[in-house]
Amino acid sequence: MRDLPPTATLRAFEVATRHATFTSASEELHITQSAVSHQLKNLEDTWGLQLFQRGKTLSLTPAGAALAPIVREFFMNLEATLAELRAQKGRVRLKVSTTYSFALKWLLPRLPSLARQHPEILVTLETTDKAIHFSSAEPDVAIRFGQGHYPALHSEFMFREQIFPVASPDLLNRYGAPHEPAELLRYPLLTRDGADLVPKWALWFQQVGVSISTLKESVRFADTNMTIEAALLGQGIALARSGHVESEISDGSLVRLFNVPLPSPVAYYFVCPKGTESQPHIISFRNWLLAESGKAQQSYQ
């Protein structure tokens, strides 16, 4: 750090590396040609390196060529960071945690609405399937999927999804559209490995009054998004939660099979440390989130 020259001197060097003469560099810097020459001579003395070959035109020495991109990147990063900080001036950062699948399929498409209503809130979105304990390094608020038992936290019910089978039009063209729930047993069924929170085919078939012993499984997936993607590719029928296939049902890339009501046994909840729910930016985010959740709940019924 002892060899770090003033910023103005570094700026003179960066500008001079892009010009053929000190005169043209001085015009960009709005100082005299002699001032540019003097600053660069001082820089060479400070570093003990010759940076330019001087003649009718300037050219960089090997040392100057090695240092030029480093100095240029420094100024680019500085300018970009300053611009970002100025743009964020007066905004409040809110760290929000949720699961990856929920963030991708439900929350992300709705975030532009939050930005329009509350431009003062700058959301940082983090995704994890792990429990959040709200230590100093963890998010401010979270959206969790479960039974709603969060005794140490402030929690509010958001919405409960419906569970139903979905298939691509391509698969239905190949296999034919099923007319009765029991007919699904002859189709390749996409299943999820994992926790009890995952929608289960056994539960759906029980709801429609079909007894099963074994399923004609296609592939088991460890991730909700892969299961939906496989259904989009026509690889089988997926058992989906309504909030994860909104856009696909809307644009026709997936078709809901059988209008059988089956509410998910688990729901989404807004949670945060007790006492923080009264902070103004958390109130704004929570109110927006619960309003969006209310619309979703009505559409899923």
Topology:
Layout: H1 7-16, H2 22-29, H3 33-47, E1 52-53, E2 59-60, H4 62-88, E3 92-98, H5 100-107, H6 111-117, E4 121-127, E5 141-146, E6 153-159, E7 163-167, H7 169-175, E8 189-192, H8 201-207, E9 217-221, H9 224-232, E10 237-241, H10 246-251, E11 255-256, E12 267-273, H11 280-300
Brief digest:
With 301 residues, the chain is of the alpha/beta class. The chain is 42% helix and 20% strand.
Q: What distinguishing features does this structure have?
A:
single chain; 301 residues; alpha/beta; five-stranded mixed β-sheet; 20% strand; elongated
Written account of the structure:
The structure is a single chain. A 5-stranded mixed beta sheet has the order 4-3-5-12-6. The protein is α/β, with parallel strands linked by helices. The longest helix is centred in the first third of the chain and has 27 residues, at 62-88. A hairpin with a 5-residue loop joins β1 and β2 (59-60). The termini are far apart. It has helices spanning 7-16, 22-29, 33-47, 62-88, 100-107, 111-117, 169-175, 201-207, 224-232, 246-251, 280-300, and strands at 52-53, 59-60, 92-98, 121-127, 141-146, 153-159, 163-167, 189-192, 217-221, 237-241, 255-256, 267-273.
